[in-house]
Amino acid sequence: MSPALPAPDLGGLSVEPSLWEMGEAELSCVVGLRIGKAGIGHVTFNSETDCRGLLPRLHEILSVEQGEIVVYPDPAMKPEVGQELNKPASVVLYGCMPKSQSRLTDSRACDRYKQRVAQMTEEKGAVFEDYSCEDGTWKFRVHHF
């Protein structure tokens, strides 16, 4: 087992499990990798992820901002589907409320907005899971990035 690596500055991103405490063998097959920002959202890769080459550039290939998670913002950095982080994942975003929150005061308005979020999710090629009108929590899955 190699010595633990120092944790780089990830611009507020949190990573679970703690990759910096793992050796090479463990880093080569991390299951349940979760990357996010407190109060904003997170992405979880449930299948095995080889994290050995990701650590030094994680902050360059993934960003979490209000209402969106961007993986591989630079298309030149994006690997083939199924490699690194370009694979199926579950996404949870918090605080994704409509511009006019007053539209969600009744159950009919909430249902209409939830349908709109579901439609938008599907149009982007993702699989809608849930949306909470109470706190704006939006859950969906992607096949790849």
TrEMBL record:
- What would you give as a GO molecular function for this chain, any one? nuclear localization sequence binding
Give GO cellular component annotations, separated by semicolons.
nuclear pore cytoplasmic filaments
One of its GO biological process terms is: RNA export from nucleus
User: InterPro entries, from UniProt?
Assistant: Nucleoporin_S59-like, Nup98_auto-Pept-S59_dom, Nup98_auto-Pept-S59_dom_sf
**Which keywords appear in this protein's UniProt record, sorted alphabetically?**
mRNA transport, Nuclear pore complex, Nucleus, Protein transport, Translocation, Transport
Q: PROSITE patterns under this entry?
A: NUP_C
- Name its cellular compartments: Nucleus, Nuclear pore complex
Q: Does the keyword Protein transport apply?
A: yes
Q: What SUPFAM superfamilies does the record tag this protein with?
A: C-terminal autoproteolytic domain of nucleoporin nup98
Where it mainly occurs, coarsely classed, is nucleus
* Start and end residues of each Peptidase S59 domain: 10-145
Q: Which domain of life is it from?
A: Eukaryota
What PANTHER family has UniProt attached to this entry? Answer: NUCLEAR PORE COMPLEX PROTEIN NUP98-NUP96, NUCLEOPORIN
Entry's family note: Belongs to the nucleoporin GLFG family.
Identification of the protein by name: Peptidase S59 domain-containing protein
Q: Which organism is it from?
A: Polarella glacialis (Dinoflagellate)
